[in-house]
Each structure stands twice: as structure tokens, then as C-alpha cells.
Amino acid sequence: MNFLFVALGGALGSVLRYFLSLVIPKVAGFPWPTFVANVLGCLCIGIFSGLFLKCDFLSPNLKLFLVTGFCGGFTTFSTFANENLALLQSGKIGMFIAYALTSFVLGVAACAGGIYLMGYNR
Fold first, then answer.
1. Distance CA 107, CA 28 (A)
2. Residues 58, 52: contact at Cβ < 8 Å?
3. Whole-structure pTM value
4. Sequence-ordered list of residues with C-beta below 8 angstroms from that of 103, at least 6 positions apart, any chain
5. Which of 4, 24, 53, 54 would bridge 33 by S-S if both were Cys, CB 3.0 to 4.6 A apart?
6. What is the CA radius of gyration of the chain?
7. Tens digit of pLDDT for each residue in 91-109?
């Protein structure tokens, strides 16, 4: 049954990520759709994690659906890695550095912000 919760959440996250790729344009070669999906996904996983840390009455199945499934399907590390490689191969070193560093820094900050928004302090 756990696989079903992960699969349903993953399907929803994947469809939302695909939607972002349709509505958010790449500007000057910067992969905005993946960047936005990853930062939003980090915020979501922070919010969900904070919620589950704070509210022990929530179902473990809901956690599988939201954290493992939805966030796993929505965020895109493999795409992120591939886009970084493409930037390097095309000689766009500055854009590679900007994309990699801002994704990492904003991702960690968004995750921490989500946990903070849920009122949980580690």
C-alpha cells in the first residue's frame, strides 16, 4: 500500500513540474522551470517536514504521499545535473556557477524556511 501513496504523490508532483516547464520560459538560457521547481519543492518539503515533526497525529501514509511522492516527483535533481552539464559544455561557466550555487543556497534556505513557517525549531 505504501507504494501506492508514493506513486500517486509522485504522479501529481511530476505533472505539476511538467506544467511549470510549459508556463515558465527559459530566459537567456537560464533553466528557470527547473530552478523554480527545485526551490518550491524545497520549500514544500520543509513545510511538510515541519508539519509532520510538529503534528504527530498525521498519517505516515500522508507523509509518504507528500514528502516522498509529491516532492520526489516535483523536484528534479537529475534534470538539474543535466542542465548544469549542458551549461558547462557550452562554455557558460558563469551561468553554471550562478545556477548551481543559487539553487543550492535557495533550496536549503527554502527548506529551512518551510520548517520555520510550521513553527518547528530543531
1. 22
2. yes
3. 0.85
4. 35, 38, 39, 80
5. 24
6. 16
7. 999 999 999 999 999 999 9
